[in-house]
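Chain A, query sequence.
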Amino acid sequence: MMLKKNKKIGNCQELMCNYEYITNYKVNYNDGSKLSILTNNYAYTGGAHGIGYAESFNFTISNGKQMKISDVLTSKSKMNSVQKFAYKYMKNREPFKHFVTKSSDVKINKDTQFYYNRDGITLVFQEYEVASYADGNPTVSVPYSVYK
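Chain A, predicted structure.
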């Protein structure tokens, strides 16, 4: 196979400027009163591999209000309870156990992504946040009883 000479495009060479953006979504929960949609976004702009980002959209169906994690975990105490639960879950399980070695390794804050499930919420972590890139966006299901 013979390669043609690279054509200059702006500051890039044609064969070196392979950018990609992919997004998809899934309805993870819909019980008629709550709706959760999870999007997965992937971008490649060069380098060894691209990077993904999961983003959740949660709604109260009756009024259309978008819910953030702070609307569910309404106090510092509830945030702490969920953080402790997630840490205990992760500390001895694959793929987390090599990345989560102390409680502070699990960060739960206003930007934490989640979706509703039948028994509570599911936390969605970003690549590298609590596991390796190859593990994608790991999740931890948290029962309602932990943060009621």
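The helical segments are 69-72, 76-90, 144-147. The first helix runs from residue 69 to 72.
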